[in-house]
Structures are given as structure tokens and as C-alpha cells.
Design brief:
106 residues, alpha/beta, five-stranded mixed beta sheet, 15% helix, globular
Length: 106
């Protein structure tokens, strides 16, 4: 298990920092520390695919006020989103939460 130091994990784990790379098979995955939703939040860039977790939602962004004071979270989220916008164009981005689907046909 790898987690960012800001999580303050009290269990055995590998410390994960911004810019660290994890090798998964033949793919290198780069850690991007993107605080805002939570101080320890990270996104992961694997080649041209971005895994955003809860930084981005379909049609929205994360709430910044759940883990820290709202202004601190909003400032962190602003800088994190700006950082994501500066990345080279990705072929696909996957948010951590999928859009709501209605029950039933259609």
C-alpha cells in the first residue's frame, strides 16, 4: 500500500510523494500530489491516461471543505486543478466518481 505522507497513516505503507513513479507491469505511473479535496489526495498519470480520483467529477470538481477549513481546501484545489490543466493533453481522464445513472431502461 502506498499513501502520501500528508495522510498521516498509522499503518505499514510505502510513502508516496509528488513525482514518484510506480511500475505496474510495463507501465510507469507518476504520482501527482493534488490537494484540495483532501490534503493527501493524489492523481496518477499513466502514459497518456490520467486517473483523477476525486479531484474531478463528471461535470464538476471536488468539494474542498470536507477535510480542512474551506478556504485552505479551495486554495489547494485551485492550484491542483491549474496543475492538471497544464499537463500535456491526455487521451483519457478517469474521475473517481462516475455520473449518476437513473434506474430502469434507457
Amino acid at each position: 500500500m502506498s499513501v502520501h505522507a500528508a495522510a498521516g497513516a498509522e499503518y505499514a505503507h510505502d510513502a508516496l510523494e509528488d513525482g514518484d513513479e510506480i511500475v505496474v507491469g510495463a507501465v510507469r505511473v507518476r504520482c501527482l500530489h493534488t490537494p484540495g479535496h483532501r490534503p493527501e489526495h493524489c492523481c496518477f498519470l499513466a502514459e497518456s491516461t490520467l486517473l483523477t480520483g476525486d479531484s474531478l467529477f463528471v461535470g464538476s470538481v471536488a468539494r474542498p471543505d470536507l477535510a480542512v477549513e474551506a478556504r485552505e481546501g479551495a486554495e489547494g484545489l485551485f492550484h491542483s486543478l491549474r496543475r492538471l490543466l497544464e499537463l500535456p493533453t491526455t487521451s483519457a481522464s478517469f474521475p473517481g466518481t462516475s455520473p449518476a445513472r437513473s434506474a430502469g431502461p434507457g
